[in-house]
Inverse folding.
């Protein structure tokens, strides 16, 4: 199963999207979610605002132990 997310404004009752071409003739489930609130812009980030809150150790680029790497692939 493949999922495609398309964010658009509906201008008519017909949806035309190039992303859907490869699905023509196939059985699909279409779910439409209406945005209840318009997207609001994220607040502008201030460079250096987390200074002193994050510490990068000298061994940051050292390879992780095998046990930890295996946790990523469970």
């Amino acid at each position: 199963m493949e999922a495609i997310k398309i964010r658009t404004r509906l201008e008519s009752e017909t949806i035309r999207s190039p992303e859907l071409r490869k699905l023509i003739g196939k059985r699909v489930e279409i779910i439409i979610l209406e945005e209840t609130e318009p997207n609001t812009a994220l607040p502008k980030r201030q460079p250096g605002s987390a200074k002193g809150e994050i510490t990068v150790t000298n061994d940051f680029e050292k390879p992780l132990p095998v046990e930890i790497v295996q946790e990523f692939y469970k």
